[in-house]
Amino acid sequence: MKEKFTKFLVLLFSLATLTTYAQQKKITGTVTSKADGTPLPAVTVTVKGSSLGTQTDGDGKFSISVPENATLSFSYIGFKAKEVSVGASQTINVSLDADERLLNEVVVTALGIQRDAKALGYSAPQLKGEELTKSREANVINSLAGKVAGVRVSSQSGTLGGSSKIIIRGESGLGGSSQPLFVIDGMPIDNGAQQISTVAGAVPQGSAGADFGNRVGDINPEDIETMTVLKGAAATALYGARAKSGAIVISTKKGVKGNASVTFNSSVRMDDILKMPEFQNEYAQGVQGTYNIASTNGWGPKISDVQDKTFPNFLAQDVHLKAYDNNIKDFFQTGKTYINSLAFSGGNETGDYRFSYANISQTGIIPNQKYSKNNITLNAGKTIGKDFNIRTILNYANSGGDGRPVQSSNNPNVIMPLIYGVPRTVDMELLRNNSINPETGQQITLTPARNGNNPFWVIDNNNFSNDLNRFYGNAILSYKILNWLTVANNLGLDYYNEFRQGNTRNGTIGALTGNFFTANIFNRSFNNDFIATADTKITNDLSLKVIGGANVFENYYQRNQSDAQTLTVDQLYNFSNAATVTTTNTSNKWRMVGLYGDIGLSYKDYLFLNVTGRNDWSSTLPAENRSYFYPSVSSSFVFTELMPSNKWLNYGKLRASWANVGSGTDPYQLAFVYGPQSTAFAQYGYGSQFPFNGLLAFSIPSVIPNFNLKPQNQITTEIGADLRFLNNRVKLDVTYYNSKTDDQIIALTLPQSTGFTSKKMNAGSVTNKGFEVALGLVPVKTNRFDWNFDLNFSQNKQTTQLPSEVTAYTLQSGWSGLIVKTRSNESFGIFGSAWERDPNGNIVIDPATGLRKTKLDQRLGSINPDWMLGINNSINFKSFNLSFLIDVRQGGVVYSNTASSLRTSGLAKETLANRGNIFIDKGVVLQGTEYVPNTVPVQSMQDFWGQFSTTNTEANIFDASYVKLREVKFSYKIPSSILGKSAKFMKELEIGVEGRNLWIISDHVPHVDPEVNFFGPGSAADGIEFNSAPSTRSFGFNLRVKI
Amino acid sequence: MKKRLIYAFCGVLTCAITLQSCEKFLDINKNPNAAENVDPKLLFSYASTSYINLRSSGDLYIPMALGGQSITTGGNNPTGWGIPSEEQYQFSTFSYGNTWRAYYTSVGANLKQAISLAESATPKNNNAAAQCKVLLALVVYEATTVYGDVPFTEAWNTGISYPKFDAQQTVLNGSIALIDEALAQFDDASALKISDYDMFFKGDLAKWKRLAKSVKLRTLMTMVDKDPTKATQIGQMVTEGGLVSSAADNFKVGYQAVTGKKNPKFAINEQYNGGRNFFFGSKYVVDFMRNLSDPRLPKFFTKPVEATDYFGIEPGADGDDKHDVRISNTLQAADAPEVIFTYQEELFYEAEIYTRGLGVGADLTKASTLYKKAVEESCKFNGVDGTTASTFANGLPNLSTVPAPMALINMHHWVDKMDRGLDAFTQWRRSGPEGQEIPNLSLPIGAPAGKLFRRYEYPTTNEISSNPNAPKELVKYNEKMWFDL
């Protein structure tokens, strides 16, 4: 049955029927690694005592004619050599043992070129697939957190299927986010996080709204064989402009020779809110101590003081006030995640296949939030004849979610303030059961007017959803023309169509007449690489490898969006049911052509030198500036090869590299154009749509274009060492790098009195310098017990240089004076209004009010951590494995709007202090020219906490440091002795428990998870929380079966 | 055979790559979604719409009307605007920022570019440039009366990244200069002008010229208390005439009773408050009108059925749904126009000029006629029938019989502008030195101790933080500006 299925699959995808070759005196076979069964390419196969010899091909296969009774010798770097006598059999399959003395890693580098790790002149850590699925995540980016030195991951929000940002060695760009290039099996794939704004929610400054995820989230983590993080320009030089912020190179799993296998994995997990705000439970809603049903706060009377009275509740019933201590907790539910995957794989001498299906289904902690993702992947390869290889990798992904929480502001559906703003006296169950009036069908609001949407009305009725269909895949043809010359072509396509919709039902306060929008987003990228590789030995000791290639890339993006206003029939989201529909469309296309080369020399397997060069031509730059060339050189030296063998230092390598990389800009940044306008803004989202009074309208651009843009330029130097001691029981890898990106293509923020918001120009530089240390220890290793301890540390110092006339550069405008910007000699930081201080640092108080004075536009801290640390422990005892990952961030600041809202509204626990007492804030007042201690009390604590509103940024700035228990996994591989008879067909059975983000061991931000990144992956800004959907912790079970 | 295949394979690929990498392949950087050339009228329509939206929206109308106390929130009334709010001087930084953004970018910069396009066209479109200049002069006047010292001489210049802030006097004189330029540029002989895309006057140049002069007169009137030398020019202008001279000259744009095109004042009540008006009548307005049995009362306000008469409330006090009036939904109808300059306003200025003898001999009789005519026009403008309007206006006291004629004119002038947030606020600020303004406003209930609202603060995000030439000291909302004595 299995055989039939195998053949069916292979036939299905148009690969020739599997056949084997047999010849007299000809021996064929496959060389594999004993540890994991993967085929080993380039293994030297010689006939002992003769000059006959060959090498295994890319799939570990070899074929050699031998005399009778010969002995074959197999040798390969990093493995112990093995000799096998040729008997009667014409097939000899050999598995080689790893030689622990030597580093045996083969690393997948740029363009999918597999290279021996010791030959690399730069840091390129590689993660195995199982590392990424230890504690499964829908978005594979999140699985990188804490695992690789120099890599920082942050989620936009706790939205299911939400987006995550990944920064390698610090943000290098002033002009937008520095996201690395993602490459799967040689095909660069799109990792966009498309933002759209809608008519009803039109806000003049950055708005993220609902988080619809970033496109790398579409990948199935179970398909990943290895993931290499190419951090520096030397590593990514061959990818050119698109990889200036690093590259994540993924190789997907392939079928291996031997019996077909079926792997099934199932995980079930429970999610709940990671960090619940702390609420006060003593005061009701109101103003300055007086109850008011129209307030969503905690500034009313003390509940225990008014038990002799009754007050109207939101149902207009007169009730005695009572605090519902857990009402907010009661709003949330336990989210559930089901992750199931099934993979069939197999292969023989000439072909292999792997077919997988994976499904993730999630429900959120906010009711009615759902996310699901389906992945189907086929990876099949075939060798035709001796020298022709074809491999096709086809991926289909469907993902989508319902009930995506709306974040940010200026939209009646922004959910978190509605939930957290529910007064202490409101019974959440009563609110849940009374969101709609059964007689009238109208909403029962929490308060009578404009801010009073019942959160259950919003989540029950106003659905923000998306549905995405994506296909990406590539075909790789390679042909070995001569023994030393191979040509290959890799043609890939990545295509997706996302449909988004956001409904706001009639009767929602803020949109009482109802509205909805739909957006169709289409993206297509096409990539072709043609590569010729020449590999030859110049002398016995000196080898030369030359790679030459050409790349053509095109990306096309299109979005059609329609916003419908004023719906007639309730809950009918059809354009014909709307009084007006505003339709907008946009598109862009850009292309890039590149020619590149790589010359590699290796001397005696211990000295390596690589020189690369690439020239790109970009459509987005002016014709005279569109061509740009950049070189790189890297070298490594395995000095232990020259030392006598010793116990202490068994392996040592030094590496150094220098690289230059250029990059272009976005399309259509050069010409001054007039854009047709669909609306003219008016506050509260109800501006005018065009045609207005029968007239159309156009506007000048908000950015002054630049006709003379040139490519930006990055230069990186990197040195490092890789040392292994005590027979690999201690591994130490250290790296120092210095990367400077000059001539940045930026949109320099202009004061709006210029008539524009910014101008495009080449200016400024960002330097990132840092250390990375990866330390691996094996403190205990016995036959039954071993303990692996891995630690990765990174420290990055970022500095900006701006032209002298530019005092500051705005990376992202926020709200209420909050800006992420940078100045010369500083890192990216949060700026905003701050408490005024005297020369001694005391807060200055206004003697008229007793309240603090405010100063505008002050730097409030860096958005970057000082350092990061990941501590990974893996303990094996017999068939048990326990592993856990602790993730530490030290330094930097975050801004929390949720903390601000909870404090200004008097709902946070800390607002209980001093209520009803005379409170004199600690600070000074200016008397004449002297500062003297303040003696003026504040009028009320409501006034005092009112200062913590968004109009004072500093009040809501916190230290972003944290220590988190990121992942825990405990698993048990059931030994074959227990499986008994089942062991015959069951190759592997593993059960386990796993958890993610289980515990914030330490942090400094009240009420919210310090790991926040409201602006998402598209922005260089970080460290902002703005009504963000809360993050979750999850815990569950896993079952893995391989047959 | 194999070799040939290889050669063919390589050849095809090489050709494909070579061909593709030719320049044409990369010449695709032309934006398919925007135009490289447009008629200036298309920028004018966007600027006009953005301008009226700003004036009638939550960024300017609501804060200015509440801060200026010409309307009130209704305090803790459940369907009132709610407190604390702008009435308690809690101004949103959005209001500061969006107002600035509109004046300088969506409105100002588009007008500036439209002027440039009109003047560089062949043949030159002088009238279009002049029309844009008059509107720009209004924008400049408003920007400075909202924020005080603002960039003007170096604003809207792509060669200057960090415009300096000009003194208010310079800005107001600059606004006047723009009008003078426009008046000299209007060319009746030319058929080239913005006509179909002119939402105000449909290209009627005579009206544009009268409006330009009246706007100039208003600017001079705003300056004259601080700079008495302006009196001469004021005198010349009223003597020469050519000012707004009938209701047909009113400078306004109608909204449409169509979703997405409704007056924002109406839309906010419709979308957030079930159609019920958020705002209550201010006692300063309503008490004055009630004492006169003003026929505009039912036009301005909706009286509760239970109420015996029209009663306003003190700003910040709780509105009583059975007693206190709300702003009328007829006044703030879906298709109500945004009004920028009216005939009655012109008459109030002229009445003031003759009362005070600004550049002309003081003439209370003439002033009486003018102020009564102004009130009559205001009544008619607000839907009162001609006879009632005339009877009411003529029944008002002659200025010679009242102890403080200027106070009476100022009060009527302010009441007429009750629904025009910023305009009423500016009229109040120029009506007398601090503490003697008309009406004599008190601090709203719940407002922080200190002085009354006087201006918007500068917006940090939009200007201060990115302009090294901007003032770094916080200028508070209750600090007076140059023209405000």
Automatic annotation (TrEMBL), chain A:
Q: How does it sit in the membrane?
A: Multi-pass membrane protein
Q: What keywords is this UniProt entry annotated with?
A: Cell outer membrane, Membrane, Signal, TonB box, Transmembrane, Transmembrane beta strand, Transport
| Main location group | membrane
Q: Which Pfam families would you find in this protein's record?
A: CarbopepD_reg_2 (PF13715), Plug (PF07715), TonB_dep_Rec_b-barrel (PF00593)
Domain TonB-dependent receptor-like beta-barrel residue range list = 439-796
Record keyword Metal-binding present: no
Protein location: Cell outer membrane
Signal peptide positions (record): 1-22
Q: Kindly give the InterPro entries that the UniProt entry links to this protein.
A: Beta-barrel_TonB (IPR000531), Beta-barrel_TonB_sf (IPR036942), CarboxyPept-like_regulatory (IPR008969), Plug_dom (IPR012910), Plug_dom_sf (IPR037066), TonB-dep_OMP_SusC/RagA (IPR023996), TonB-dep_rcpt-like (IPR039426)
Question: Ranges for the TonB-dependent receptor plug domain?
Answer: 123-246
**Entry keyword Magnesium:** no
What the record says about family reads: Belongs to the TonB-dependent receptor family.
Put simply, this protein is called SusC/RagA family TonB-linked outer membrane protein
From TrEMBL, chain B:
Which superkingdom does the taxonomy of this entry point to? Bacteria
Quote the PROSITE patterns the UniProt record gives.
PROKAR_LIPOPROTEIN
Q: Keywords for this entry? A: Lipoprotein
Q: Name one Pfam family in it.
A: SusD-like_2
The reply on keyword Glycoprotein is no
Looking up InterPro entries in the UniProt record yields:
SusD-like_2, TPR-like_helical_dom_sf
This one is known as: SusD/RagB family nutrient-binding outer membrane lipoprotein
The organism encoding this protein is: Solitalea longa
